[in-house]
Structures are given as C-alpha cells and as structure tokens.
Amino acid sequence: MLAISPHCDDAVFACGERLGAQPGALVVTVFAGDPPSGAPLTSWDRDCGFRASADVMPRRREEDRRAFAALGVRGEWLAFRDSQYGDSPATHEVASALDALIVRELPRQVCFPLGLFHSDHTLVSEAALSLVPLHPETAWCAYEDALYRSLDDAVEERVDTLRRRGFVLRAGTRPSALAAMRRKRTAIACYRSQLRGLHTPQRLGHRDALAPETYWSVKA
C-alpha cells in the first residue's frame, strides 16, 4: 500500500488504522519541504509552538517518523512547500513525482486524499486522480480528509464533482479493531506541534481523526 499525504499528519489522521494493518506500507508526504531561508514565522506555525521558521519542517518530519514507527510503516518526504510558504507547484509536477514512486514501488493499492477544503489537499487529490487512468492495474481509493470531512456538505460536493467528471466512486467504512484504534491513537499523539495548533481558539481540534475511517474506491 502507498498512502499519499498532503502534509505531515494527514495520512495518519485519516487512515492510520488501515496503515497500521499493513506493515511496511509507504506513506509519502508531498508538502514536506522547508520554508524559504529567512521566511517569517507564519501564524499557524506560531500557534503550533514554533519560534523560528527553520525549526518547523525538521520537527514535523520527525513527528512523522515517530508516528510511522508506531504504525510499522515507512515514510518518504517530497520537497514541495506547503502553500503557507509561498507559491504552490503545478499539479503536473506533483503528479510526476507521485508517478515515479508508483513505478518504483509497484503498490497494489494507492490511497490519496479526497481533496477537501484546503488547497494543498485539492492539489494532491487532483495529481493522484490524473494518474488513475495510467495505472489501471492498481486499486485506487480516496480517504476522507480528517477534520475537513466534518465541514457541512464538503464530502458530498467533492464526490458529486468527481462523478460529473466521469470517475466512479463507491464508499466504504472499514470496521475498527481495538488494537488498530490504539495504534492510531499512539501515532496521533506523536504530532505534538500539530495538536497544539489544532486546539487553539477558533480551530477544529482533532476529534474527527478518531472517528471511523471512510474510503471511496475510485475508477476512471
């Protein structure tokens, strides 16, 4: 299994139980590049407890490593930058990097974000969707983006959009085993900076990450 994560934490929050059931699975985090040298600290990074922009991504990648170790999976980090640090890459650039990983790893299944609310999530989702017709032998599934899936009509509107574009989507919820839930909770706790930011005023918290995981099989 190859799981595509827009940012450090997204795949674990959205499909940590599924990952924990597949030892050796690979999680690739797309927007894991460092901010530009000398960039000012963003308000989100400040809320997460950071004091300098240079400290942010090394610590977040380390949080990823600890979470992946708790789940028994591997990690890989691409150098694209989070949209809060400047211009986003083109969709085809991200698609090309992901395609190279698929060719190298030959996964039986690829899980990617449905692409809700956040521009980075949508970009990664679109990049993955562009690859679905190129790898018909692979089982593709979209995970509902944890936290954002709780926004009113977000899932329904995205699914309707993709169906109108010709994709075939079918929903399914995986039953949660107690051991898998415990592993996921342990992994989530590794993201100390993210959890701190999520629980600042006016933000969503992380309760939705503990709700049942929902996936959509995707075919071109």
Q: What's this model, at a glance?
A:
This protein is α/β, with parallel strands linked by helices and 220 residues long. The protein has eight helices and seven strands. It has one domain (2-219): LmbE-like (Rossmann fold), CATH 3.40.50.
Characterise this structure.
- It contains eight helices and seven strands.
- With 220 residues, the chain is α/β, with parallel strands linked by helices.
- The two termini are 19 Å apart.
- The relative contact order is 0.20.
- Helix content is 40%, strand content 15%.
- It has one domain (2-219): LmbE-like (Rossmann fold, 3-Layer(aba) Sandwich).
The chain-level mean pLDDT equals 94
Along the chain, the helix and strand elements come as: EHEHHEHEHEHEHHE
Strand content is 15-25%
Largest sheet composition: 7 strands, mixed
- In the residues, how many domains can be counted? 1
Helix content: 40-55%
Shape: globular
* CATH top level class name: Alpha Beta
Task: Quickly count the helices.
Answer: 8
Q: Strand arrangement, largest sheet?
A: 3-2-1-4-5-7-6
CATH superfamily: LmbE-like
Uncertain segments: none
* CATH level 3 topology: Rossmann fold
Give the strand tally. 7
Gyration radius (Cα, Å) is 16 Å
Cα separation of the termini: 19 Å
What is the annotated CATH architecture? 3-Layer(aba) Sandwich
Q: What structural class do you assign from the helix and strand content? A: alpha/beta
